[in-house]
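pinned: reference chain
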Amino acid sequence: MIELNPKRFVNAAAKARQVKLYVRMFAWRQYQSRTPQGHVYTVKFETKASGVYASCNCAAGAKNLPCYHVASVYPIDIAIVTMRQEHARQFEQPHEAHRSMPPVLVKPQPPSLGRINGMEL
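pinned: its structure tokens
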């Protein structure tokens, strides 16, 4: 696993800006990065207590070195994770409209006159 440290990714980020990669998300925090030559690499992210880690199946990623595949996919992963967290946060807090609504009043029912042969009168 590659620790995502900005100081380690300076060269990889510079190359990622030069190369046009095509990125596709195929599972939660798992992406496919395709180079213009047609090579496809799988990039996966994982959050641990000590930070965010990535893995890539390219030659550099196999040696736990920063690669431009991870550097190009990481901003997309940050955006998706942030959107999902914000969406979940919206549903955890009750909406202001629900707090200000008056309680529902139940229409009073007339008293029962009794039952004859199992039917209400």
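why pinned: The beta strands are 2-3, 22-27, 30-34, 40-48, 51-56, 115-116, 119-120. The first helix runs from residue 10 to 18.
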